[in-house]
Amino acid sequence: MADVGKTLLAMYEAMRAHFGPQHWWPSSPLLAPHDRKLEVCVGAILTQNTNWKNVEKALVRLIEAGCMNVAALDAADGAHLAELIRPAGYFNVKSRRLKNFIARVRQVSDGGIDGFLDRPLGALREDLLAVRGIGPETADSIILYAAGKCTFVVDAYTRRVVRRHGLIDAGADYETVKALFESHVPPRAELCNDYHAQLVAVGKTYCHPTARCAGCPLARFPHRAEA
DNA sequence: GACCAGGCACATC
DNA sequence: GATGTGCATGGT
User: Fold this and answer.
1) pLDDT at A78 (0 to 100)
2) pLDDT by residue (tens digit) across A112-136?
3) Which of residues 15-74 of A touch strand C (CB under 7 A)?
4) Exposed e or buried b for every residue in A40-73, given b needs 16+ CB within 10 A?
5) Strand, helix or coil for residue A189
6) Would you say the C-beta of A87 is within 7 Å of strand C?
7) Which of A32, A55, A119, A125 has the highest CB neighbour number within 10 Å of its CB?
8) Which nucleotide has the least CA–C1' distance to A203?
9) ∠A191-A150-A207 over CA atoms, to 5°?
10) Is the peptide bond between A29 and the residue preceding it cis, with omega within 30 degrees of 0?
């Protein structure tokens, strides 16, 4: 516990050296630049408890149907929207969640996704969390990857890695884990972005109940082997 | 055929 | 306030 900040940065450097930059959003080639931010928002909702490959299929279907814009999503019939996003699973609930999100966007910024996102981080986060179907992880994903503002996204992988490395209590909630990173890691959006992606890579490849620590870029940092 | 994947809302205890 | 359950597809 000598210097948590140094440890967290060293862990990041080790992961990045091992996996290379992860190029998470907004690097998807699916859309023209002016629609990219909306695509990220939609993707953040569709990826809830869902493999990203399936989300991409749903995003392509929305784009091909001409629905990847605020007006079209707002006007779309819920059942039709559900059918379009079917490959991403949970299509009925996610259709409602998308409609809830779009309604909030129109309410706040008179229709534009840029106007909605380009506001102070606190107000934006509060608005997102008020949408039924958007929890803290999805809200922070939108803030970081769509709005490009610096916030730390915490997911199951993040929790598991910091817990195993003794950086946080077992019962720590979302905001506590988020605060750990935000109080020790330089507040740069690119860093928040790639750090989260690196943690996911470690979590998928090494840091889970059945995997071994051998080969993990974080193996040289103090940790427990068990889940 | 079981299990998991870039969660959240709601019911229940 | 902690824990359990439904939502649903596609890949391994």
Assistant:
1) 94
2) 899 999 999 999 999 999 999 999 9
3) 49-51, 53-54, 57
4) bbbbbbbbbebeeebbbebbebbbeeebbbbeeb
5) helix
6) yes
7) A55
8) B6
9) 50
10) no
**Cβ of A210 less than 7 A from strand C:** no
Render pLDDT for A140-161 as a digit per residue (tens, 0 to 9).
999 999 999 999 999 988 988 9
* Dihedral pair phi/psi, residue A38, rounded to 5°: -65, -40
CA of A13 to C1' of C10 (A): 34
| Domains with residue ranges and CATH for chain A | 4-23+154-205 (no CATH), 33-146 (1.10.340.30)
- Distance in angstroms: CA A133, C1' B10: 12
Q: Give Cα A206 to chain centroid, integer Å.
A: 20
* Residues lower than pLDDT 50 in chain A: 227
The separation between the first and the last C-alpha atoms of chain A, rounded to the nearest angstrom, is 21
Q: Is the CB of A79 under 7 A from strand C?
A: no
Helix-strand-coil split of chain A, %, nearest 5? 60, 0, 40
Distance CA A135, CA A31 (A): 26
Nearest nucleotide to A97 (CA to C1') is: B8
The CB-side HSE value for A156 (13 A sphere, CA atoms) comes to 8
